[in-house]
Amino acid sequence: MTPEQADLWFLPLGGTGEIGMNLNLYGHDGAWLMVDCGVTFPKPGRVAADGTVHHRGEPPVQMADPAFIADRRDRLAGLIITHGHEDHVGAVPYLWPLLQCPIYTSRFTAEILKRKLAEFDLLHRVPIIEVDTGECRQIGPFNVQWLALTHSIPDPNALMIRTGQGNIFHSGDWKLDDEPLVGHGYSPNTFTTLAREGVAAMVCDSTNATVPGHSISEATLHRGLSEAVARAEGRVVVTCFGSNIARLHTLARIARQTGRYMGLLGRSLVNMTNAARAAGLWESGDQLIQPSHLGYLPRHEVLAVATGSQGEPRTALRRLAAGNHPDFELEAGDTVIFSARAIPGNEESIEALIRNLKALGVNVITAEDAEWPIHASGHPAQAELALMYQWIEPRIAIPVHGEAEHMEAHADIARSQGVPRAMVGRNGDLFMIRPVPGIRRQVVETGRLGWQKEELIRVD
Length: 460
Known about the structure:
- By secondary structure, the protein is α/β, with parallel strands linked by helices.
- The protein has two domains: 8-213 and 378-458, Ribonuclease Z/Hydroxyacylglutathione hydrolase-like (Metallo-beta-lactamase, Chain A, 4-Layer Sandwich); 218-365, Rossmann fold.
- It contains twelve helices and 26 strands.
- The strands form five sheets. An eight-stranded mixed sheet has the order 10-9-8-3-2-1-23-24. The protein has a seven-stranded mixed sheet with strand order 11-12-13-14-15-21-22. Strands 17-18-16-19-20 form a five-stranded parallel sheet, with helices on both faces.
- Strand 9, helix 4 and strand 10 (128-130) form a beta-alpha-beta unit.
- Helix 4 crosses helix 8.
- The longest helix has 14 residues, at 245-258.
- It is globular, with a radius of gyration of 22 Å.
């Protein structure tokens, strides 16, 4: 199956009909362009009383099966990574040997990717081309422009993919945050200009399409987090997504204001801050102390940021809850703040973790019971989706990055904004944008691969 010069296709192998393991293909004039290459984690299994999740032997890291494009890698012009979240970049070290194509991405995402590739001894084998926001690159028959948007990680980019048969706007993960705190912002003019040029299809994030209103800004979280830390009498541990550098900056500022010392617990947090430093996105005034020093400080001077907001095994917060973290032990009167919301499927693991913390006498504050906001989503709610459709004015809407409920709600929003056609499908469907719009259902076999004992195995 090879696209001809008159064809303009979209083919998702992962991330459409689900949240996670994004892997998208665009086909035109004999070539394919891949956008994102991410991982996911096993479906929820039995949760033991201590919070341990038993996944019935499934590999702990899973990703979309790239067999279709791996068999055609001579026609794969390149891979673009839109941003540095695991569900968009995490599969690259596992799958690149099957693809062996150049990778295009922004500087911060490149820093994250380089650290992943180094762990697999691939760093000097993989060609990584760093691209600036606003820049255009010719990748095979695709002319691609990187466009600034905001998300819960620095420097995410949407893509304008231009071809002789029409243009496609690929949003990546995004929100409209007027005060993102770290990294670039966005300009409405960027997108209204695209509308004047003409956009055949808009392939867009559906994660929060069922959420009314507008997502809140990162800048609004300082009050809630600051008050929670200021009221705490013992140690404070905040758990959040390690990729949210803006959230870490906010917490570092709060540490200074409340007379506490901030340290990071968890390898992914350390890797992210190192990548931010290398990309010039870490403020020099935000000093961190070695986590091994936290145990020697008076309790009221400790502010630790820990991995494990989703109740994942072997993370720092899980070890603290179990009383076996090497740096310090939680005691009655300490406080744990969940500056994150549960990813669907993780609720039982998080609830078990919270029970363990409370059994220690620890005060637990979640985003649901905080007086003021302590977490901001990185995805667009309904008002933002509507506004983007008003700006872009595509002829076709293709919702992705969501389960069926999210994508159907997204399609309804697109239609309400005057988009002539919305096409809703799932992984393995071929979305034909040109010459005649339509969907061919399940033309490509899809599935999952897992990484187990240093090899890829078929999961389903």
